Amino acid sequence: MRRLAAQSEVEALAGKARSVDGIRFVAAEVSADSVDELKVMSDRLREKLRSGVGVLAARINGKLSFVCVVTEDLVKAGTVRAGDVVKQVAAITGGSGGGRPHMALAGGKDTSRLQEALDQVGRILQQLVAG
Q1: Domain that holds residue 53
Q2: Number of domains comprising the chain
Q3: Is the whole-model pTM more than 0.85?
């Protein structure tokens, strides 16, 4: 049951993707019980986006966890790397992270700044694309 709810949540988010400088993106807080579940949801989001960037965050055991995914076309083009995005997003909440070009993980500390961090994803993408 939980898996179906997570899938429908991801599908709804993909349908609400925004765009900045020609890159579709989703930045949202989701309900996840573990980082592994957050990663599965992020993978599903990447599949649904087809081309774009996804940043999902969850409050897990009182801490913030972020996963950023980037579709293969953007990675191959050198446009955006997940590690670059998630580092900047997590930094807003006093956290840090990193990972591979197509998926990166981060932890955050200040839960009160979560929405601010997610709201900055579009600006972060603009800066990364501009170089």
Answers
A1: 2-130
A2: 1
A3: yes
